[in-house]
User: Which sequence fits this backbone?
């Protein structure tokens, strides 16, 4: 079998834009040009999309961090899918907004790109959406990501409190409910509301809940938990899967809208189409019983 | 040994297929031998819980893929950990019912490891789970996953070839084949397009990018006589040459491609045929 162009290619143009303590920020036009020179020490800034294919090529050289281009995210979010591949390997990675930087132009990405998405190791290094690529690269150069065990990413934030002591808590999954949430917290989470979700809800017994509709699914099984929990007096609603990504309760809270709710929720004024934050508030202030 | 919350639906010498209602019910006992069919979505979060036990394989639900591909993002997380994974089409899944998923659901998406075990979209989950249990994936380096395939052969011997990146072009493509690839068509693609110099090409527009940078190479390689077009990244998956060919809609093309009949808005399949048939037109020309 003959060799692909990639295998025959020898030249990997890289531009070093910063250097400190043996670590460097290295800019390049393509992720294919990451190589063994970058292993373990360099933050690489390639103007490629961060799909799984480029991620494989980058990951085998294990750079310190990666900042690429989101290619406007696209079909099946293939422009950012590599963020999750790199996350599994503990490599901090981020993408720049597709309209903030030219594709295939590494220096433009470094000089004018603005972050759109980050994976969890990058988030723990302090990278956030909206940060200039230049600043993000400097931060990855400086900050070591903490050791993160697979499965230990727990985000939890109280976003609204009530004089009674009740509160709205945003956390990515219902399995991260605490005993103190019982009869006290409105939990905004982002897993689906099928029967397995319902069993966690009945265990947690929150004051109210908002989960994801899981794209509804066969026989509307993605919201089956609404009825089950209503039978136990829990008030709850679901986030419309077309308005916010499953698994990200924070975006659900900020951007999501409601696709369904149960009778106890309806009684306190919750309606389909309402913003999630408003529904969380209505559940919070509802009368007991 | 049977774990609580796990239903063994198939048992063989190499391991078992276990159905669970939730990805959280994956257990250490599944490590390295079992295929876990779980009626959770296959996002990064559930994938962390499956991935920490690195089972032989995992099948979850795609939850309609959804914004930012969040319903299937775990496929890529698991691929990095060496776990073969697939998702089932949500319209065929009862969320939260693992046994039902095993018995009636149909595969929608696969990662590269599952693909190398022969699992493909359209396959029943039951058959896919068996394939993951019985077959070993081919060991593959980053450069090995090219997904190269001839999808059409013209009368002249020229072919339409799908492969995931223009960098996977082969010497035999030069002046001969129409390549459907799936990287963007920005300035960093120019070098590869010139070196491969295919008879025609269709790449991704990379979502456009600042200042039309995702299609910048179209005009540049026009000067080299190369005929090419791009597909809209919103409709065809980047990094998947077959998706370019099957799902793509043309978003831009250069003058040589237009002269062969390629038009914006045309399905990529038609455009690929037009690029291929440029041959006949050229032969007919004086």
Assistant:
């Amino acid at each position: 079998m003959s060799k692909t162009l990639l295998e025959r290619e020898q030249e990997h143009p890289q531009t070093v834009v910063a250097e400190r303590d043996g670590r460097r920020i290295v800019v390049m036009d393509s992720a294919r040009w990451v190589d063994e020179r970058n292993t373990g020490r360099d933050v690489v800034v390639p103007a490629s999309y961060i799909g799984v294919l480029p991620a494989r090529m980058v990951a085998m050289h294990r750079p310190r961090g990666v900042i690429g281009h989101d290619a406007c995210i696209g079909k099946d979010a293939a422009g950012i899918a590599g963020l999750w591949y790199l996350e599994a390997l503990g490599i901090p990675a981020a993408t720049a907004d597709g309209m903030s930087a030219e594709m295939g132009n590494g220096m433009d990405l470094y000089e004018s790109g603005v972050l759109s998405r980050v994976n969890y190791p990058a988030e723990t290094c302090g990278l956030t959406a909206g940060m200039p690529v230049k600043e993000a690269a400097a931060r990855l150069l400086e900050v070591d990501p903490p050791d993160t065990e697979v499965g230990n990413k727990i985000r939890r934030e109280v976003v609204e409190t009530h004089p009674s002591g009740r509160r709205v808590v945003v956390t990515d999954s219902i399995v991260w409910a605490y005993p103190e949430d019982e009869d006290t917290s409105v939990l905004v989470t982002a897993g689906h509301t099928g029967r397995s979700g319902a069993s966690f809800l009945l265990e947690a017994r929150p004051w109210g809940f908002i989960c994801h509709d899981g794209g509804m699914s066969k026989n509307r099984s993605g919201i089956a938990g609404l009825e089950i929990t209503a039978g136990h007096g829990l008030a709850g609603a679901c986030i419309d899967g077309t308005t916010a990504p499953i698994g990200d309760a924070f975006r659900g809270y900020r951007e999501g809208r409601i696709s369904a709710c149960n009778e106890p929720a309806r009684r306190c004024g919750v309606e389909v189409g309402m913003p999630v934050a408003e529904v969380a508030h209505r559940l919070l202030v509802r009368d007991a019983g | 040994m049977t774990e609580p919350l796990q239903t063994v639906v198939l048992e063989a010498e190499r391991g078992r297929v276990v159905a669970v209602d939730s990805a959280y019910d994956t257990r250490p006992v599944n490590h390295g031998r079992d295929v876990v069919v779980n009626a959770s979505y296959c996002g990064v979060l559930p994938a962390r819980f499956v991935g920490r036990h690195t089972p032989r394989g995992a099948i979850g639900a795609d939850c309609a893929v959804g914004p930012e591909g969040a319903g299937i993002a775990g496929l890529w997380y698991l691929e990095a950990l060496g776990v073969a994974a697939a998702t089932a089409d949500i319209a065929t899944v009862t969320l939260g019912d693992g046994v039902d998923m095993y018995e009636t659901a149909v595969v929608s998406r696969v990662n590269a490891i599952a693909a190398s075990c022969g699992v493909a979209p359209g396959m029943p989950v039951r058959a896919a789970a068996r394939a993951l249990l019985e077959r070993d994936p081919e060991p593959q380096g980053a450069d090995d996953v090219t997904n190269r395939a001839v999808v059409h052969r013209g009368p002249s011997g020229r072919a339409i070839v799908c492969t995931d990146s223009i960098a996977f072009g082969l010497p035999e493509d030069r002046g001969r084949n129409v390549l459907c690839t799936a990287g963007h068509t920005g300035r960093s693609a120019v070098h590869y397009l010139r070196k491969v110099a295919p008879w025609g090409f269709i790449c991704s527009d990379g979502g456009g990018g600042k200042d039309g940078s995702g299609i910048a190479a179209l005009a540049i390689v026009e000067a080299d006589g190369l005929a090419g077009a791009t597909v809209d990244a919103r409709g065809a998956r980047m990094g998947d040459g077959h998706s370019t060919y099957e799902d793509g809609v043309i978003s831009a093309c250069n003058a040589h491609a237009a002269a062969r009949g390629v038009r914006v808005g045309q399905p990529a399949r038609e455009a690929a045929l037009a690029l291929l048939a440029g041959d006949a037109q050229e032969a007919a020309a004086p």
User: Anything to note?
Assistant: Chain B is about 30% helix and 20% strand.
